[in-house]
Each structure stands twice: as structure tokens, then as C-alpha cells.
Amino acid sequence: xxFLNNEKLHWSEKLEIWLITLLPALFSAYGGAAVALFCLxxxxxxxxxxxxxxxxxxxxxxxxxxxxxxxxxxxxxMIAYWTVYxxxxxxxxxxxxxxxxxxxxxxxxxxxxxxxITDFREIEKHHIRSSLLWMVSFLSVTFIFRxxxxxYQYSCSQSDSFIWYMLSRSSEFYPTHHxxxxxxxxxxxxxxxxxxxxxxxxxxxxxxxxxxxVCACCLCMFLLCINSRAGLxxxxxxxxxxxxxxxxxKRNYKLGIVSFVVVALLVAGIHFALPAHFQNLSSTVxxxxxxxxxxxxxxxxxxxxxxxxxxxxxxxxAGDRMxxxxxxxxxxxxxxxxxxxxxxxxxMMTIGIPGIILLLMMIFIPSLKAFKERKFGFFxxxxxxxxxxxFESMLERQMGIFFFCLMTFLFxxxxxxxxxxxxxxxxx
Length: 428
What we know:
Strand content: under 5%
Shape: globular
Number of strands: 0
Order of helices and strands: HHHHHHHHHHHHHHHH
Helix content: 55-70%
Mean pLDDT: 81
Radius of gyration: 23 Å
Low-confidence stretches: 419-428
Distance between the termini: 6 Å
Structural class: mainly alpha
């Protein structure tokens, strides 16, 4: 990569670029290794600050390559969100569980902290682009290997239909929870669409276009294989956003008509080739609109709403978010207590009105900024995230909160840098 040829950079700066570049890819493939990589990044930043005397403490945005001189507002909301969780321990009863919850939310504090104590003047826009390309590549390669493994397992089985074999074992296709994997895949697809737009402007080589097209196909097939209802719904939303961008923002009506026809044929193909996927998707939409369903998730959400009615202002506190739901499941078959499976309800139930306001601001502020700056890849991430947390409490697990903080961190770095012309031959 081009940044390795810059001899003016200190070794700690070069290592920092490598670590930030690899973080999204490594996290999407193996989250535990990414956490260790983040710890290494923190240590490296401390070494860099001592070696180059680059301590800044919230006032580093004075370099000529940066557009802004203020600490990003989204990081202020993230710190406030974590602080409200911490303060909620005052009125919670189960302190041990509350401390575990605070620990899992610590990324809301750590990402803004490393942004505050040092500058990232060595990080350029093409480094951030490289990090997302690496993530897409890792996900594509992972799909190819897993798909090849399933083909081998199918050849050794006695199943008549390969599609039925895949559907019956969709939960085994990849160990990561399907809701979180869908978020990673859709983030990659949104970024790829943005890349295709940039390639068109820069008249990039055909080989790059073909490579990214193959990656897009792999991510779409990956999404179908894990059979996530929320993921399929978000995929349709992503396709709709892409079509609106082509037809109304780019004013390319011919391409808009062609893409609409292609998507319609694709949906029809899924309906006939994978009827189970289509039925799951349609039933999810009907259930959300009507509010009536036998789906246990809607019952879980209704239980959370009941708790919110009893504690509307400050919530029940970080430690009691699961204990207050236990009475609803005393007579259930397995006796297991479920979280609300909806981050909005979960936050409202746990830390009340202040928490839900901060959560909305954490999503709305960067998405609005990404829209204004025409960063379609990041904009689609925040929109898809906002929809995904309707079906899963993603900010209560490392798989969701780390990825959200990481993407917000990359978006903030990208926004701070002044726009530069894209050099597609800089990534080899």
C-alpha cells in the first residue's frame, strides 16, 4: 500500500495506520482478535504521543488538513450515553450485573478517548477506504470458504435438494449471530455501491470493477445463506436507497428504470427459488405493521413496553434490565428470560428518556452529516443500523457496540479530513 512508502512517518504512525486499516476486517471475521488489536492500537498511541510529543487533549484539530476545530458532537453523545448507564447504578439493585453492563458499554468511552488524546494527521481518506475494502474482502473470502465447505458437506449427505439443505442448516453457516452478520454484510454492500459511483467518476480499470462486482455478489449470497429476516428487509431498504440515489439525486432516469427492473426480477427470483426466505420477509413486514403475531419477539417487546410504562423517566437501571423481565417468563416452557430484542425499547427500559434521546442523537447526527457530505457508504450504515436495532438489542453485546463505535470513529476521521482526489492506483 502507498502509505508504507512514506519514509517521513515514524514507525508508530505506520503501525497506527495498519491497525486502523485492519480493524474492520478483523472484527467482521473474528471479533476477539479485533478487541486485542484495539488494545494494541491504544498502546501504540501512547508510545506515539510520548515519542512525537503529540498529546492534544481535545484540542488537536488545528492542522491545515482538517476541516473542523471542534470535538465531534457524536462522541459527546456517546460519552453521555455511557455516563447515563454508569449513573443508573445509583438506583439499580443488581449491582454486579450492572457493572458487567457498564463494562460491555465501555467502547462508548474508549473510542472518543483515543480520538481526544492524539491527532491522526497521518490517516488519510484512502486509508479509511482501504480499511473498508479489507472488510469487504475478508467477508467475501469467508463466504467462499464457508460455501465450499457446505458444498462438500452436501456431497457427503443424503439430501436431495441443495437449497433445502442450505435452508435447514442456515444457522450453522456462520457462527456469528445472523442479525450482526447481516449488519456487517449490508455495511459492506453500501460501501461497495459508493465505490462503484467513485469508479465511474475516476474511470477506474475494468479489473477493479469486476473484482468489486464479485465481492458484491458474494455478500448478497452470504446474506441469503444466513437467512436473516431483518437482514433481508434491510437489503430491500438498501436497494431502495440506491435506486432513489440513482434516479433522483444522480438524475440518471434510464439507469434508474433498468435498476428497478433488475431488482424486481431479483425479488421475483428469490420468491420462486427461495420461497421460505420470501415468506419470512413478507411475514415480518405484516407483523410490524399489524402488531399481531405469534412471533415470540413481539411478545418480548410488549413485555418491555409494560416495564417502560412503570418506569418511564429514568428506567430501571443497568443492573435490573433483565431482572424486571423475569416475572413475564416464569411460566414459559424453558424458563429463560429474553432481552427486548429492540434497542430503542431496551434503552428506554434501562435508562429512560435521557437514554433514548442520546441514542437517537448518536444515530441521527452522524447520518445527517453523512447525507450532507454525500458519503453514501456511511449514510447507509447509519440507516441500516437504525433499522436493524428494531429487531435486536445490538448495543448490549460486543458484536454490535464495538462495530457501531468503530464505524462512527472511521466516519468521523473521514469527515475531519479535507476532500482529496481519489487515486485508485494507490491501493495495490
